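Consider the tokenized backbone below.
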């Protein structure tokens, strides 16, 4: 029988302390539902009463059918006061949630410097606060802040703090590497000692300042900790918190612990990407397990091998965590890349096909001109389908025009596009906060009457790369556009010495790819789509 590990998610509290992350109450509720669907055991929602968003969150979460334990957060009582008169503790007790995490000092340096009180008073603060929550019938988790630094400086006092929390009835003693400066070997040794000295179950809470938060969490589990605290995608203050998207599969797939049901584990990638969208933070493409490039292959030798057996260059099956294998195509790639990519699209291709060599030569020439398909899968798919005679031009661009005006110090942009959609000429104008935005708005406005689902697509990233800098303002630029809807994210590329033209090329490819992949029943009438050539199988 495998050992169960409890997952405590603090994305909604510790994660929001990360730079550039700000969640509304609605955002927090959406994320809580997604975390619950993933199967985490605790969801820390924030501090009831600390701000209007958290107040609203705790009020509204009561009416939702959440299986995870919604957990409030707060600090131990103020020095030389009574727990039952501490407004923060009272708000936690009145919040209606079943569990609460209280953070307290376990490093004597912090007690003297930050709290400016005595070691004895700090022990009383810990005991009184935990005892108050237990008296109110709540599950109490004690986060021993700066525990590892405190233990290395004064082990007797750090353990005394834990012992006081245990005596007060703490359900979990969570050891925190708050500054993120402890090494895995130290974590393992210290957790092992604590397990021998105390009886309450141990949790681990690490930060990533040395890029070791995941490794430290795993080391703590190996030493006997049974709860891991962390955030989705590693969001958090400074360098972030322990990344649950790496910890969960490492514990379950690599180390054999019982963490999540297999069907829940398969939703990990979708959960990570959904939360990144809500948080409006782009995920690193190379993020382990859930990143877009986590199972991407570019080198021709690699691709040739994985076509025989994916275990040659993949440490797990991507599907176990809800990800998928990707084959990247570039001027460095061999025919194996083209063959694998085309086959994944259902195209009839083999290594002896002259057409394959011609496509490879064409891709190399395009990349010589500045195109980059390894970061633009959608443009590559459109290119391959055209090469194999599949019609993907569901509309034709007849012309476009961009007008810019500086009126009383304010820049205004307007775009005019002329399209042919199934024999119908569409002439549309739209404004935007810049020329590219205006073009995007005009293109969507022209097509939405034929394909209403276009309204669900939004531009999630826009990058411009200048190459041949020596040509100054006449240099070519490469524009990469990332687009998203509720189900998928895709990237397209455009190249030109005119940044507007390059942007337009990427935008048009983005819409064409979206239409190609929309289900017939959810877009336009079936006969219209088939007539336009969206489906040609």
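A designed sequence for it:
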């Amino acid at each position: 029988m495998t050992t169960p590990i409890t997952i405590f998610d603090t994305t909604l509290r510790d994660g929001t302390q990360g730079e550039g992350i700000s969640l509304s109450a609605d955002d927090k509720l959406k994320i809580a539902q997604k975390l619950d669907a993933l199967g985490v055991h605790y969801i820390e929602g924030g501090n009831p009463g600390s701000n209007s968003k958290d107040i609203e969150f705790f009020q509204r979460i009561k009416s939702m059918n959440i299986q995870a334990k919604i957990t409030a957060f707060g600090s131990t009582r103020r020095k030389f006061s009574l727990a039952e008169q501490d407004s923060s503790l009272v708000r936690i007790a009145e919040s209606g949630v079943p569990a609460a995490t209280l953070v307290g000092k376990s490093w004597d340096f912090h007690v003297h410097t930050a709290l400016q009180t005595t070691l004895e008073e700090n022990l009383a603060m810990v005991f009184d606060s935990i005892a108050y929550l237990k008296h109110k019938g709540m599950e109490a988790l004690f986060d021993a802040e700066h525990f590892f630094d405190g233990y290395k400086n004064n082990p007797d006092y750090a353990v005394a703090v834990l012992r006081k929390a245990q005596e007060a009835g703490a359900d979990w003693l969570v050891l925190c590497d708050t500054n993120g400066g402890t090494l895995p070997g130290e974590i393992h040794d210290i957790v092992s000692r604590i397990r021998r000295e105390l009886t309450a179950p141990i949790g681990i809470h690490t930060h990533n300042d040395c890029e070791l938060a995941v490794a430290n969490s795993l080391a703590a589990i190996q030493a006997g900790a049974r709860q891991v605290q962390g955030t989705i995608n590693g969001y958090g203050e400074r360098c972030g918190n322990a990344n649950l998207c790496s910890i969960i599969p490492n514990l379950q797939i690599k180390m054999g612990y019982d963490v999540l049901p297999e069907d829940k584990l398969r939703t990990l990638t979708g959960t990570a990407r959904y939360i990144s969208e809500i948080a409006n933070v782009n995920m690193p493409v190379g993020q382990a397990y859930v990143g877009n490039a986590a199972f991407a292959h570019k080198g021709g030798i690699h691709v040739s091998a994985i076509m025989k057996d994916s275990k040659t260059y993949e440490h797990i099956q991507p599907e176990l965590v809800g990800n998928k294998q990707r084959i990247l195509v570039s001027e460095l790639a061999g025919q194996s890349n083209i063959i694998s990519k085309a086959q994944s699209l259902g195209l009839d291709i083999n290594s002896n096909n002259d057409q394959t060599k011609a496509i490879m030569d064409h891709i190399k020439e395009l990349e010589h001109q500045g195109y980059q398909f390894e970061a633009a899968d959608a443009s590559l798919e459109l290119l391959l389908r055209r090469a194999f005679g599949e019609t993907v031009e569901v509309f034709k661009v007849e012309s476009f025009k961009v007008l810019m005006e500086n009126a009383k110090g304010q820049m205004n942009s307007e775009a005019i596009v002329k399209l042919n959609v199934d024999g119908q000429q569409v002439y549309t104008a739209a404004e935007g906060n810049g020329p590219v935005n205006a073009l995007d708005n005009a293109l969507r406005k022209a097509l939405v009457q034929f394909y209403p689902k276009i309204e669900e697509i939004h531009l999630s990233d826009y990058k411009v790369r200048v190459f041949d800098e020596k040509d100054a303002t006449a240099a070519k630029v490469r524009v990469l556009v990332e687009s998203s809807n509720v189900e998928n994210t895709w990237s397209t590329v455009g190249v030109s010495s005119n940044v507007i033209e390059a942007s337009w090329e990427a935008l048009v490819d983005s819409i064409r790819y979206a239409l190609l992949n929309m289900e017939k029943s959810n877009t336009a009438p079936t006969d219209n789509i088939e007539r336009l050539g969206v489906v040609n199988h």
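Residues 283 and 372 are 20 Å apart (CA to CA).
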